[in-house]
Design brief:
The protein is built from four helices and six strands, in the order αββββααββα. The protein is of the alpha+beta class. The chain has a single domain, classed as GTP Cyclohydrolase I, domain 2, CATH 3.30.1130. The strands form two sheets. It has a four-stranded antiparallel beta sheet, with helices on one face. It has a two-stranded antiparallel ribbon with strand order 1-4.
């Protein structure tokens, strides 16, 4: 059966506990354990995956005021891809979590990089204006283990 068939469906879904399940939402604990991954069915190919979460909400750690924004994750997978429902639940978990925008964008990047070990990843937090100033934070990651030729190829793809 081809790589696109269903022969390995059980293996592909092994360990995914949130997809298709009723999961109670928690709004106070953005734990990396919420995130789940599944095997990349095309690891021989470099391609880009983009997640855009336009309903991000967190709290300012000083004022307690809500911060709203969009989190955009762009990555070239290696062996794993992030499962979308777990990503959504992870994003929702920040709702009552107090953190500066710079720190939480780096935290999201760190958690996804640790889980996926992607060839390349960018995490962008574009936050709505508060006090007349909007803030954008961009975190870049390029797998240091890749050879120069592969790194150059990914830079052109990007």
């Amino acid at each position: 059966m081809s790589v696109h068939g269903t022969k390995n469906k059980a293996a592909e879904q092994y360990g995914l506990s949130k997809l298709g399940a009723r999961v109670p939402l928690r709004f106070d604990n953005p734990d990396a354990a919420i995130l789940e991954a599944f095997p990349n069915r095309n690891p021989e190919r470099d391609y880009i995956v983009i997640f855009r979460y336009p309903e991000f909400t967190g709290l300012c750690p000083v004022t307690g005021q809500p911060d709203y924004g969009t989190i955009r994750v762009t990555y070239v997978p290696d062996k794993l891809c992030v499962e979308s429902k777990s990503f959504k639940l992870y994003m929702v978990a920040f709702r009552n979590s107090a953190s500066f925008m710079e720190a939480l964008t780096n935290r999201i990047a760190d958690d996804l990089i640790l889980l996926l070990k992607p060839r390349r990843m960018t995490v962008e937090g574009c936050f709505n204006a508060r006090g007349g100033t909007d803030i954008s934070v961009r975190v870049e990651h390029l797998d240091p283990e890749l050879d120069r030729e592969r790194r150059d190829l990914l830079n052109r793809l990007w």
